[in-house]
């Protein structure tokens, strides 16, 4: 038997040992990962807003559905309601006021207000949903809905936000959209839905 022939079994055995060691190491890493991640979950807060514009006869003129951004002050507000940590945030004030505006500036996480909120008066003010709907049918969701009647918020609308006060206050979320033209006789329904979920 030649030297090369005698080395073949040794090389095969060495290869098998290396593969076995590799598989054993991979199994150990996977086991440690699963043990570390066991029983943990990531909390998610997601929002969407639906807007439906009706004419004087009740026919749909315009309809929009889109996700919105939960801003930094909104996350802080939610944290404060779990355990108050900042005297400037009142944990007893719910985010149940819906505001409209004309600002088209893109949404940013550091924003704390609408860019150009419609001014109080002239038939406009933020509207409050005093009893939001909580449902677990399609995930854990809280929905707030208000209706701006004829004569309210008339004009061009490009943004909406969710606040914890009738004026000023802290903003939970904001969204912008292509212009909605609300006529004096139109009705606009705005619904904000916040989904609370966990992912393993």
Features:
single chain, 200 residues, nine-stranded antiparallel beta sheet, 2 helices, 38% strand
Description:
The protein is globular, with a radius of gyration of 28 Å. It has 2 domains: 40 residues; 158 residues, no CATH class. It has a 9-stranded antiparallel β-sheet. The protein has 2 helices and 9 strands. About 13% of the residues have low confidence. Helices cover 23% and strands 38% of the residues. A hairpin with a 5-residue loop joins β1 and β2. The protein is α+β, with helices and mostly antiparallel strands and 200 residues long.
Layout of SSEs?
Blueprint: H1 3-37, E1 42-54, E2 60-70, H2 72-82, E3 97-101, E4 127-128, E5 133-135, E6 140-148, E7 155-163, E8 171-182, E9 187-199
Antiparallel strand pairs: 1-2, 1-9, 2-8, 3-4, 3-7, 5-6, 6-9, 7-8
Q: Using only CA atoms, what is the Rg?
A: 28 Å
Helix count? 2
* Domain module count: 2
Q: Which range does the strand content fall in?
A: 35-45%
Strand order of the largest sheet: 4-3-7-8-2-1-9-6-5
Helical fraction: 10-25%
Report the end-to-end length measured between terminal Cα atoms: 59 Å
Overall 3D form: globular
Structural class: alpha+beta
Sheet bearing the most strands, described?
Answer: 9 strands, antiparallel
Order of helices and strands: HEEHEEEEEEE
- Would you tell me the overall average pLDDT? 79
Low-confidence stretches: 11-31, 33-37
* Beta strands, count: 9
Outline of the structure:
The chain has 200 residues and is an alpha+beta fold. It has helices spanning 3-37, 72-82; strands at residues 42-54, 60-70, 97-101, 127-128, 133-135, 140-148, 155-163, 171-182, 187-199.
